[in-house]
Structures are given as structure tokens and as C-alpha cells.
Design goal:
3-stranded antiparallel sheet; alpha+beta; 5-stranded mixed sheet; globular; 8 helices
Length: 343
């Protein structure tokens, strides 16, 4: 019996026991961690893939890269094969992938709750990240079952973001909190090295997990040492200074975002200005929320300020390529997360 065939672009997906619930519920509810540990991923040929699909051993099907995926050896993970070669074609390809994913899973940006701060956090464990193989390790005595679960949490994030784009995130923390889903923070005082914190209570909505990961990653992109001069205090800053962040370089991403969208007030409905209510909190949060929607939604037409904020990211070729990479990984991440829920 065919357990599944994962060909998101050109071939139909088959899932045993898959619920046809997209019309009734516009989001996919999934246990948002990869179905397998990255280290157990293997590459299979077309013939082996066909043999696997007809196998009665359903669990073994989860430990492969499929014929429309590429195997990323350095990260021991899989990503959808990209079918584009320049910014224009990659934007179009990304929009096509989103269309396919929305048809199968519903909205990729639907959220039921949003973290509102870091209050009430209880740290459970702290790890160093070994990017070679994407493993985490700690000097603490961590029970094996806890280490295994926390490794899953880290791999859930690292599966989505290319390793070369997150090398400076070299510490991982797991915490308990009633209102915080995740956070990033610098831990060297100069903006070079960063910590990712994740709630021990895993998020049940796959779409909310995606937005949360990309939101926190956008903070890293916009607040690292290439964006802020951490040596300067406010009195010494001759460019944009935000009290919760620091002195931004003139060509920093957030400098352009702030001057275009926050320097002057506008009039209109709030939903015409922000992708979410949380985006209203500050320029930093608006940037992070908008980046997540830039990646996970189709290119907007530009009818209001909200759309203009998403279009802002398309002026940077590096963001277009990053969006392409993340969407290729999101496709493989989603199918494994959903299968984990089915099992």
C-alpha cells in the first residue's frame, strides 16, 4: 500500500489516512518538529524511491530524501529541488511553491497566539551548537530523553535555515514560559554570536511554528554586527538609534525599513499597515513579522502599506535567494511534520 509520494511541484501527494480538511480548516495542525533526526536522513535513487513507495514498511519511508528533493550532505537534511536560476525566476518559483503548499496545508502564516514578551521564562537547558552535522551538546548533565527531544527542537529550526546563513547562532536554550514561544539574544556583547531560545512546550500549529522561527531569525538578520555598531551609545550615534537595539549603520536593513515606514505616521485601517497586531509593537517587531510573511506568502500587488512592507525585501537579492532556499526546505519540513502527526 502506498504510504506517500512527496512530489510537491509536478506530482500529486499521496498520504495514507490523510484528512481532507483544508476547506474546513485553513491551517494544518501538526506536531512541529521534523519526523526524523537529521543524522538518519539518506539519499535514495529513483528506483529505490519507487521500491520504498510500494513497501509495506511504512516507517522506513520517512528516512529518505525523495526523487524531487536534494540531499544536503553537510546538514544531513533534504530540500526541494529549486527550479530557478535568477531573482525573477526564483520569485516566480517561490510563489508557485507557496500556491502548492497552501493548497495542501492551508495558510502558512496563520497564528492562534503570539508571544508578547520574555516575562516568566524558566531556563531548562543550555546547549552549544555544533553546526557540522547540526548537533547540540551541553556541559550539564542532561537526561537522554530530554537531550533527544531538545535535539528535535533544534533540528526543527535548523532544517529550515541554510547552515551558512545561521553560523553565528551558536547557542541553543530551552525554556518554560506561558507567553513566549521563542527568542533570540546576543551573548557576546558585540552582536556577532547569538542564542536561539525555544519553548519546551512545542507549538502545535505548523504555520505558527514557521512564522515564529522566521520571525526570530529576522531579528538575527536585522540586529547582528553587520547591521548595528555596538560600540556606540546614543549620544555618539549619527544615524538611526533605537533604544532597544542600538546604533544602526546607514545601509542597515532596519534603517531603510524605519525611514520608509516608521518615520512618518500614516492614516488608515491598521490591517492596511501591519501583517499582524504584534508588528505594531516596534520597528524591530514590524520588520521581523513582515520578513516572515515575505517568505511564506506570495508576492503582493502593492495595494497598501502592508504590501509595500513585504515588497521592501524584494529589493535585496540576498533576501530573494534566502526566501527561495527557505521555501525549498519548508516543503520538505512540512510533509515530515504532518506525517509525524499522522503517526
Amino acid at each position: 500500500m502506498k504510504f506517500f509520494r512527496f512530489l510537491l511541484i509536478s506530482i500529486t501527494i499521496f498520504l495514507v489516512g490523510c484528512k481532507e480538511s483544508v476547506e474546513e480548516n485553513p491551517v494544518v495542525t501538526a506536531y512541529a518538529e521534523p519526523i526524523i533526526e537529521a543524522s538518519s536522513t539518506i539519499k535514495v535513487s529513483e528506483a529505490e524511491n519507487l521500491a520504498a513507495e510500494t513497501s509495506s514498511d511504512e516507517v522506513e519511508l520517512l528516512n529518505v530524501c525523495y526523487s524531487n528533493e536534494i540531499y544536503i550532505e553537510k546538514e544531513n537534511s533534504c530540500a526541494l529541488k529549486k527550479e530557478c536560476n535568477d531573482s525573477s525566476s526564483c520569485i516566480e518559483w517561490g510563489n508557485e511553491v507557496i500556491t502548492k503548499l497552501e493548497a495542501d496545508y492551508g495558510s502558512l502564516v496563520y497564528e492562534e497566539s503570539v508571544a508578547t514578551g520574555h516575562e516568566g521564562i524558566t531556563l531548562l537547558a543550555s546547549y552549544d551548537v555544533e553546526h557540522e552535522g547540526d548537533s547540540i551538546y551541553s556541559k550539564q548533565e542532561i537526561p537522554d530523553d530530554m537531550l533527544e527531544y531538545h535535539s528535535y527542537l533544534w533540528n526543527s529550526f535548523s532544517w529550515l535555515i541554510p547552515e551558512q546563513s545561521r553560523e553565528e547562532i551558536n547557542r541553543f536554550e530551552v525554556f518554560e514560559s506561558g507567553d513566549t514561544l521563542a527568542y533570540v539574544s546576543l551573548h557576546d556583547g558585540h552582536g556577532r554570536y547569538w542564542t536561539l531560545g525555544m519553548n519546551n512546550e512545542d507549538i502545535q500549529l505548523a504555520s505558527e511554528t514557521l512564522v515564529t522561527y522566521l520571525h526570530e531569525y529576522a531579528h538575527f538578520l536585522s540586529l547582528n554586527q553587520s547591521q548595528i555598531d555596538y560600540r556606540l551609545v546614543e549620544e555618539q550615534c549619527n544615524s538611526l538609534y533605537l533604544k532597544d537595539s542600538g546604533c544602526f549603520y546607514e545601509d542597515a536593513y532596519l534603517s531603510g525599513f524605519y525611514h520608509r515606514f516608521w518615520e512618518k505616521a500614516g492614516k488608515g485601517k491598521l490591517e492596511d499597515f501591519y501583517v499582524s497586531r504584534y508588528a505594531m509593537y516596534s520597528p524591530e517587531e514590524d520588520f521581523a513579522e513582515s520578513f516572515a510573511h515575505f517568505v511564506l506568502t506570495k508576492t503582493p500587488s502593492g495595494g497598501n502599506v502592508r504590501d509595500e512592507k513585504l515588497q521592501f525585501f524584494y529589493q535585496y537579492e540576498e533576501f530573494i535567494q534566502l526566501r527561495t532556499e527557505i521555501l525549498a526546505r519548508t516543503a520538505t519540513w512540512l510533509v515530515r511534520s504532518t506525517l509525524n502527526e499522522e503517526l
